[in-house]
Design goal:
The chain is of the alpha/beta class. Helix 6 packs across helix 7. About 55% of the residues lie in helices and about 15% in strands. The protein starts with a strand and ends with a helix. Strands 2-3-1-4-5 form a 5-stranded parallel β-sheet, sandwiched between helices. It is built from 9 helices and 5 strands, in the order E-H-E-H-H-H-E-H-E-H-H-H-E-H. It has a single domain, classed as P-loop containing nucleotide triphosphate hydrolases (Rossmann fold, 3-Layer(aba) Sandwich), CATH 3.40.50.300. The structure holds adenosine-5'-diphosphate. Adenosine-5'-diphosphate binds next to helix 2 and helix 3.
Length: about 190
């Protein structure tokens, strides 16, 4: 079983590339953002808890997302491998993932990091707000909070995986097909 992490700031294109990788390579895509939005839409207790945090651009507690990941692994035993999109987003989550995988004799194969500048993050998110109708995409202040949270809480994950020699970065400064090609060669 392969485990790939698609890493990068909000709006980097992780979801877009994950969908293409599912079509071309047959992996199972887990997006913690999508899972959380489903919980919100279904009005579950978890969804209610997450809604306010997400709409203000803050992260959902580590235990919550780790629990979702664990149950996704457990309910998909027969897939070729997993593409993790939007997880891990903190060093605590990265440590929890390593522990979860160690329990089943597995480990992260590679972290593919999609790099774009903060300025591009802003443009992309605002463009997406028009299409996807996400409350956390429409407001400048919330976008700033997300960018700040990314630098403070998520970027430290880079060194965590560099230390394990698993981190590879792609400069996503081209068209979608050009950027995707750079990502695809890094995934078996
Ligand atoms: P984006 O990558 O564009 O920020 P996502 O769909 O990945 O969008 O995430 C949307 C929101 O869901 C995040 O801003 C955060 O509030 C919450 N979220 C998603 N994944 C995680 C995670 N691994 N840990 C904590 N919060 C998360």
């Amino acid at each position: 079983m392969k485990y790939y992490v698609l890493f990068g700031p909000p709006g980097a294109g992780k979801g877009t590339f994950a969908k293409l990788l599912v079509e071309n390579k047959g992996y199972y895509h887990i997006s913690t953002g999508d899972l959380l939005r489903k919980e919100i839409a279904a009005g579950t207790e978890l969804g209610l808890q997450a809604k306010d945090l997400i709409e203000h651009g803050n992260l959902v507690p580590d235990e919550v997302v780790c629990g979702m990941i664990r149950s996704e692994f457990a309910s998909n035993p027969d897939v070729r491998g997993f593409l993790l999109d939007g997880f891990p987003r903190t060093v605590t989550q990265a440590e929890a993932l390593d522990k979860m995988l160690a329990e089943i004799g597995a480990s992260v194969d590679r972290v593919v990091s999609i790099h774009i500048t903060d300025e591009v993050v802003r443009q992309r998110i605002k463009g997406r707000a028009l299409v996807e109708n996400r409350a956390d995409d429409a407001d400048d202040e919330i976008i700033s909070t997300r960018i700040r949270n990314y630098h403070e809480k998520t970027e430290p994950v880079i060194n965590y995986y560099k230390a394990q020699d698993k981190y590879v970065e792609v400069e996503a400064d081209g068209t979608i097909p050009e950027n995707y090609a750079k990502v695809e060669v890094l995934v078996d």
